[in-house]
Amino acid sequence: MILKRRNKVLVILFLGGFFVACKDNKQINRSDDKKETVETFQNKGHELVYKMVQKVGGYKSLSQKNNVQYTYTYETPDGKKDVSTERYIFNGELSYGNYKIHERTLPQLEGTIEQGYDGKEFWLRHNGEALANEDFLKRVKFNRPTNFYWFTMMPKLLDPGVIYEHLGEKTIDNQLYDIVKITFKNEGNTPTDIYQIFINQKTELVDQFLFTVADFGVMETPNLMLMDYENIDGILLPTKRKYKKSSWDAKVTDTPWIKVTWSDIIFDTEITKENFKKK
After folding, report:
1. Positive/negative CA dihedral, 214, 217, 219, 224
2. d(CA 171, CA 168)
3. What's the total number of domains in the chain?
4. Does residue 77 lie within any of the structural domains?
5. Domain interval for residue 89
6. Structural domain includes residue 259
7. Which of 69, 123, 148, 219 could bond 95 through an S-S bridge, CB–CB 3.0 to 4.6 Å?
């Protein structure tokens, strides 16, 4: 999956509170001893996303864990795989991937490849040697922010610049969902990705969502992503995922699923910013 890199994360503060009405917007009042902040919602869709993020754990909770390391496995129906050790530092969105298997990503390079983003520069190493090939680096510029974004997607749906639209309710497999369309403010003329998330009214989690891939011009036909969650140190993460082509009514094609798993997840490791720099 290659998605456009989102706006820089601003930490979203939240504390338990109660709902009050304010003009045409709904608000949450939250107090922390002598401090009080107010969350203003654009609309019902924004409010539903906010509640969902509180359920999975917000970006503040991730930032407090400093960093993460995990194994990323991506498998296509033809049996080809990418298997990488992923490392991220949440503050600054630093991203690193060490690919032991890369049958989908730069398969023409035999042996281990390493990709990195140190907060300023994207880089690539092949068998320990830095590469400057622009075509290869374009793939790095897709992969590094994309993998980071997928891992942090749910809390990042509260990023500045996100636009929400509640599309109504829909019953799927006897479960009632709220459907929220997610788009992104864009100062340029390039298209941005579109998400359509299905929030389970019972669990308040996103069980599935539709998405486009603007960077590859895939805007008319979305993919449908299905997810299973796992609680890792208090954060609910969709560690088992699969996706394939779909209609905007969430009716998938007969093609096989592309499968993605995150395993061996460890937060707050001993990695530092030095580990993300180009050697």
Report:
1. negative
2. 11
3. 1
4. yes
5. 67-152+266-276
6. no
7. 148
Output the pLDDT for position 29.
39
CA distances to 68, 180, 186, 279 from 85, rounded to whole Å, are 10, 33, 32, 18
Q: How many CB atoms lie within 10 A of CB 276?
A: 22
pLDDT score at 217: 53
The verdict on residue 239 lying in a domain is no
pLDDT of residue 18: 32
| Range list of β-strands (E), 103-234 | 113-117, 122-126, 129-131, 162-172, 175-184, 195-200, 206-213, 218-232
* Dist CA 279 CA 267 (whole Å): 25
Calculate helix-pair angle for 44-56, 134-156, nearest 10 degrees. 100
96 domain-assigned: yes
Give the integer Cα–Cα distance in Å for 237 and 104: 24
- Model confidence at 6, pLDDT cuts 50, 70, 90, reads very low
Span 67-97, pLDDT tens digits: 999 999 999 999 999 999 999 999 999 999 9
Which amino acid is it at 85?
T
Residues of the chain with pLDDT > 70, as a percent, come to 82
